[in-house]
Amino acid sequence: EIPVEELWAGPGRITLEPGEIVTAFVLPATPQGSGSHYERHTPRKVMDIAVVGVASYLELSGGVVRAARIALGAVAPTVIRAERAEQSLVGRALTEESAAEAGRIAATEATPISDVRGSVAFRRYLVETMTSASVLRSAARARG
Question: Which class for 54: exposed (0-12), middle (13-18), buried (19 or more C-beta within 10 A)?
Answer without folding.
Answer: buried
